[in-house]
Amino acid sequence: MTIANRRLFTAGLTATMLLAAASAMAHHGWDWAEEKQSQIDGTIETISMAPPHPSLKVRTADGKTWQIDLGNPNQTARSGFTGDTAKAGDAITVLGNRNKDKAKLHMKAVRITLAGKNYDMYPERIQAH
Q1: What is the pTM for the complete model shown?
Q2: What letter would DSSP give residue 43?
Q3: Domain segments of the chain: what residues?
Q4: Dihedral sign from CA coordinates of 55, 59, 60, 62
Q5: What secondary structure, in 3-state letters, does 108-127 show?
Q6: Each residue of 1-17: pLDDT tens digit?
C-alpha cells in the first residue's frame, strides 16, 4: 500500500468512526426528542432490560404500539424499576419526550408509573404539568 493510499484509508476510517460516534450520541442524547413532554397510557407488551438501555413496548387504547426507552441500566435501577417490577399486561403511564418525527411511535421516558408508584428515570428532567 502506498503512502497516499494509507493516508486515504486512514482518513476514511477516521471519518467512519466519527460518523458512528455522532450517530450513537444522537440516539442516546435528547436531540431526536421533542422538548415538550407528553404522556401516554397503555399496557406493557414486552420488557427488555438489555443494554444499551432498557426499553418497553407499550400498546395504547388506539391499538398502537410504542417503543419506550428507559434510562441507561444504572439510572433505571436507581429509579427502582427492574425486570421483575412489571410484566406484560400491566397498565402503565409514561411521561416523556416523544420522537420529533411523528411517524415514529418512540418516546424517551423520564417517568413511568405502575400501580400508582412512580419510577423516575430522569427526575431532573421532569417538567411540571
Answers
A1: 0.77
A2: E
A3: 1-31, 38-125
A4: positive
A5: EEEEEEECCEEEECCHHHCC
A6: 677 656 665 655 454 44
Residue 98 pairs with which residues in a beta bridge? 107
Q: From the CB of residue 43, how many other CB atoms can be counted at a distance below 10 Å?
A: 15
Residue 57 confidence class, pLDDT cut points 50, 70, 90 = very high
Would strands 91-98 and 117-120 be described as parallel, antiparallel, or unpaired? unpaired
**CATH number for domain 38-125, candidates 1.20.1640.10, 3.40.50.2020, 3.40.50.300, 2.40.50.1010:** 2.40.50.1010
Residues whose CB is less than 8 angstroms from the CB of residue 42 and which lie 6 or more positions away in sequence, other chains included: 58, 59, 60, 61, 66, 91, 92, 94
* Whole-number Å distance between alpha carbons of 58 and 111: 14
In the block, residue with C-alpha cell 450517530 = 23
Q: How confident is the model at residue 29 (pLDDT cuts 50, 70, 90)?
A: confident
